[in-house]
Amino acid sequence: MPGTFFRARKSADIAKLGQSLSDVATFGPAPPDVIGEGRFNHAGAPMIYLATTLETALLEIGTLSELFQSQSWHSMVSTKSSIWWN
């Protein structure tokens, strides 16, 4: 399936797990021991959530509405397949 997909994670969550923003594995499925219940997965069962738009990826982690409410864009780093906020 060709196209661009986005994966968003909050940097605080990444830091809490001791993961690195420069490691591409950070943007894959979360480790099983930290996975809670989700819409499409059960606790401990990894599922990667991808979006076809940046806006949807941010909505999935609750960041888009926070940005619009505060009207402050923090440092955004973008690659072909992932983004994150500080």
Automatic annotation (TrEMBL):
Residues 31-68 form the RES domain. It holds the Pfam family RES. InterPro entries: RES_dom. It comes from the Bacteria. This is RES domain-containing protein. It comes from Rhizobium meliloti. The lineage of its organism: Bacteria, Pseudomonadati, Pseudomonadota, Alphaproteobacteria, Hyphomicrobiales.
